Amino acid sequence: MLNPGTHQDWDGGVGDTPLPEGRSPLADLSLDPVALAEIAGDARELRFGLSSVTGVATASSSGAAADLRAAGLSSGSALSTATNRFFRKSMDLMADCQTIEEGLDSSVISHTELEADIAGQLHRVHAALPIGNPVIAALEPGPPATDITGMWGTAANGGRDAHL
Known about the structure:
Elements lengths: L1 E2 L4 E2 L23 H38 L4 H54 L5 H6 L25
Antiparallel strand pairs: 1-2
Helix pairs in contact: 1-2
């Protein structure tokens, strides 16, 4: 779904499907470390599962290919080629799973560090500005804004102050 105000995607419904509970139609830059850890765990599980299965399948198929070739059957060569291809593709998939796992782990770590840094910077800025500063007052929570349509210009003629 595309946010018309920011032209950014957000996680949510499609078409007339409502957004999930607790989600707003604003650009969402949040990162769920628990969900990413689960995905990384799935990638790790797949990688380790493939490792054990690939070894058994490759050994069995290579042995069968050798027996077929020894018996003078041309299918032994075809099975050997298929076994080698299966082994290479399995190794590629395991490497991809490891890349996903490590990438998600590093994303969670770097996001957590950046979030803490940003929060610290905001607290320092807030503490450095004098109380009653209009910048801080604008950031403080208040009643929801109401737009008065057709009011533009300076604060004196309905510009910024038209957003009540």
